[in-house]
Predict the structure.
Amino acid sequence: MKPSFYPDRRAALIGSLPMTDHAAATRLVFEHAPEIPLWVQLPAYPAEGMLSQFLPGFPGVREQNGKLFINTQDPAFHADVLGFYEAYLAAEQDPSVLDDSVFALDTTVAAGFFEFLNQAAPVSDRLFAVKGQITGPFTFATGVVDDQGRALFYDDQLRDVAVKLIASKARWQARRLATLGRPMIVFFDEPALTAFGSSAYISISRADVTACFEEVFAAVHAEGALAGVHVCANAEWDLILDSSADIVSFDSYSFFDTFVLYADHIRRFVDREGLLAWGIVPTGDKEAIGKASVASLVALWHEQVARVETLGIDRTTIERLSLITPSCGTGSLDMNSALRVLELNAGVSKALRAGQ
């Protein structure tokens, strides 16, 4: 899918911030990423955790000793699954019903989404694009477990429900973001992909993971939005580069050397005008954040682009197809470090776009 816009090294962010005030957090987003803002997730609220935030609507959700799981032994479970599929099929036939379905987010789990819409609406004509995000299907289906403690991914039906839940909630996001009248991006956050191919997931096939991705990407594409995948560490990047994802978001600060090894896959991805979101600003190491400067990160980016050029991709193309982002979200950082990340990210983007 050809992108509807070329970001040309504009700044974007990854969703989380270490704050408790959604309005203030959203204002901070508009201050540091004014052209491609996003809604914020605040991990200080348990309901906004990576798994719990998007779990409502899944049949059989239960909580025990502070842990959420899917109770497949509940007598009503199979009837609830049937009801889930009925709601899913209804939304497939008429996406307008998503707003009144189990797939709609609400303020109990995503207050930042609605605050974002409120703050974005008056300035929408000044926005270049808008960004949403959701936990990716692989991370979600391997992170949520059933009543036996087994990840949903290992059960064909539970995996199917998980993927359709994520796909429909992503589609709902895209539909609501569309009201702002700007190009839309929806990122699927996939930290669990760092372990794919290891002994942790040795029985999971590449074909199954790819099928999950293609289903959620298709849901986003159906609304005219771009689908991105964000992995904050190393991964088997060919899995994403060879998919129908429009954006690959990677930690270029710490893992560029392994990413660039996928030369053929990167070339093909760029040839179809796939976008690269460079996580050039460190977020995982407080000391690295403190030592980094706009100048040092700009120099690092130029070094990395030069290596991509050796793959046979010209610099002008790379620049046109690039976003500048932090390497990951800042929700686990202290506030001073998080602010430093936002300032560095905005500064690097500004410097690069000014030709520095």
About this structure: The two ends are 31 Å apart (CA to CA). The mean pLDDT is 96. The chain is about 45% helix and 10% strand. The longest helix spans residues 156-177.
